[in-house]
Amino acid sequence: MIQPHHITQACRRTQDALLIATEKPSPKPQNGGGGGSSIEAPLPLPVGLISAKRELADWLADWCSLVRDGLEVVATYDLDEHSRLEWLGSGERAEFLANHETAQDFLDEITVLTKQLENPYLPRAGKKYIGFYGGGNVYIRDGQTEVTLEDGETHRVADLRAYNAAHMLDTEGTASDVAEIIKTFFGHDITPQKITVAHRNDKTRKEGKRLEPIRKEGNSNIYRVWDVLNRLC
């Protein structure tokens, strides 16, 4: 059953994708026949990305109109995509969409549009994203020990991972947000379901570690990365 927090999370993911989609995709390494490598010049924003942004703008106009008319309220959002997504994904608007007969259509459509925005920035084949350093997104292959950043400096992968660990532990988010951070930056395959199940089961535990959210935002529990790691890892 679709809940308001599903609407909220979908809108937040799209907002995050829009923030990333203001930058040019990272250059793609090209291996030559002699075993060396070269870097292509940075690409302009792909035509598909520009098209996806336009499609999202038109799509948001339609859904905002549906919600506005359905609730019989005056629009309180600006005409940019971020403001409309924030409006749709919060308060009574998210509740209205979750309970509407087209709720699944909303989630399916926004997921497709979001993936179109994310696609140019996905990790290259065989590589894993480890963070933003030295002016650009950094991807590494399994077993790689050093990486050269966009600013030209070379760093040990272990040092970048240690930086991740030191700066991500206090990050807060929904179960989905925290699970994604832990998988990306710490390498543990924790699902949002594992987090919510642990919290639910811990309510009856009298001894040992207990996983508790630090607060609620609407219908969503907000967790700290360190708390989840400490409980499940």
Mind explaining what this structure looks like?
By secondary structure, the chain is an alpha+beta fold. It has 9 helices and 9 strands. The protein has helices spanning 4-20, 47-71, 81-88, 91-99, 103-118, 157-168, 175-186, 192-202, 225-232; strands at 29-31, 37-39, 128-133, 136-140, 146-148, 154-156, 172-173, 215-217, 220-224. The strands form 4 sheets. A 3-stranded antiparallel beta sheet has the order 7-9-8. Strand 5 and strand 6 (154-156) form a beta hairpin. Helix 1 (4-20) crosses helix 4, helix 2 packs across helix 3 (81-88) and helix 2 runs antiparallel to helix 5 (103-118). The model is unreliable at 28-43 (pLDDT under 50).
Broad shape: flat
Strand order of the largest sheet: 7-9-8
Q: Please outline the major beta sheet.
A: 3 strands, antiparallel
Summed over residues and divided by their number, the pLDDT gives a mean of 82
Distance between the termini: 30 Å
Order of helices and strands: HEEHHHHEEEEHEHHEEH
Q: Which runs of at least 5 residues are low in confidence (pLDDT < 50)?
A: 28-43
Residue fraction in strands: 5-15%
Number of helices: 9
Class derived from helix and strand content: alpha+beta
Tally the beta strands: 9
Quick overview:
With 233 residues, this protein is α+β, with helices and mostly antiparallel strands.
